[in-house]
Amino acid sequence: MFSAIARVFRTPDLQRKIWFTLGIVAIYRLGAFVPAPGVDYGNVQMCLAQGNTSGGLYSFVNMFSGGAMLQVSVFALGIMPYITASIIVQLLRVVIPHFEALHREGAQGQAKMTQYTRYLTIALGVLNATTLVSLARTGALLNCNLPIVPNDSLWTILLMIITLTAGTGLIMWLGEQITERGVGNGMSLLIFVSIAAGFPAGMAQIFTTQGWRTAFIVLLVGILTIALVVFVEESQRRVPVQYAKRQIGRRTVGGTTTYIPIKVNMAGVIPVIFASSILMLPGILIQFNTPQDGTPPPDWVVFLSQYFGDGAHPVYMAAYFLMTIFFTYFYVTITFNPEEISDNMKKYGGFIPGVRAGRPTEQYLQYVISRITFVGALYLGMLAMIPLVAFVLINANQNFPFGGTSILIMVGVALQTLKQINAQMEQRNYEGLLR
């Protein structure tokens, strides 16, 4: 293994890309600790030390920002506005024919959709920055009585919103630079770094509060979860496809056998993000509709607080699990089009052995994908439950280091990056990084 890593750094072009990627990552992590203008950094650290933050509500967003959100730094919004914008643009293909037409145009259409994603990212950045600054001003973000923004004049608030939005734009640009000039997918790598940055603190907290036995059990569960994620993410159903021989001029083409790879988890982590985002809404409604003068809150606020204010409540867990399954089917239905695949196979003379071309092929693919998606949906639901179950069993906070979502993202990004490095090594040395 070490000799393979040494070969990577002996390749000048690949070595330059890796160092460039590490430099961008260093800049990204540095921005997570630079406080936004108008923020009292000392008070922020004192509030975080008290441990009364709204971690359960904002932990998911805070995880994607590498802890920068609760630090109220210039990169507080992290990569979440870009992720949300990418998902929205992808979903708009279903309802807006223009986006579907762009998707079919290839590289030129994809570049146009990327431009739309950038514009939407900035718009969402302004919206998220306004919400974050409002929460910081009122103290609801950190549940602390110390003033986070001592001078809440209009100019200070506008400057904070502009700075946080610019931070989002800079993160988007850094990710694109890694994709173009570095190694791996830039946005995915930044998410990887953000999640990995919270692992040492999470393990240290469990070791301090629960002891070494619990820390060892958590580490063992994390290793088993990683093994499960690697196994499932690499698992796929291969549907065989044969192409009939055709005579084009003097050449005979076709007659080959290939397959359609259908992954067990085709939706990735998107369903978990959808479910988490929706389940954040009750917590936000509770915070903004709870009277500060000590008067009893409305009945609907009491209902939301009872069932959705705590992630350890069985109703919350059941809703999270069922919504993850629902969004898995929803996302796969949007992204996998059996009719389009069937038409393309028929156009080029392909067929599935034992299945007639056309409508029967479409029905067969729909049957296969529905069965595979059921397994993938249960798998994602189980991964989403890991931090919630840990919260009940060992009284861990919502930033449980080996949560299923974080492991799923990290393993997926690591596998993707290793495969790209391996492909570049095979192009240059005929011997890859992986054997």
In short:
One of its GO terms (cellular component) is plasma membrane. The protein is mainly alpha-helical and 435 residues long.
CATH superfamily of the largest domain: SecY subunit domain
CATH topology of the largest domain: Preprotein translocase SecY subunit
The arrangement of helices and strands along the chain is HHHHHHHHHHHHEEEEHHHHEHH
Secondary structure class reads mainly alpha
Total helical segments: 18
Question: What is the CATH top level name of the largest domain?
Answer: Mainly Alpha
**Helical fraction:** over 70%
Major sheet summary line: 3 strands, antiparallel
Report the radius of gyration as a whole number of Å.
24 Å
CATH architecture of the largest domain: Orthogonal Bundle
Distance between the termini: 10 Å
Keywords: Cell membrane, Membrane, Protein transport, Translocation, Transmembrane, Transmembrane helix, Transport
Family: Belongs to the SecY/SEC61-alpha family.
Main location: membrane
InterPro entries: SecY (IPR026593), SecY/SEC61-alpha (IPR002208), SecY_CS (IPR030659), SecY_dom_sf (IPR023201)
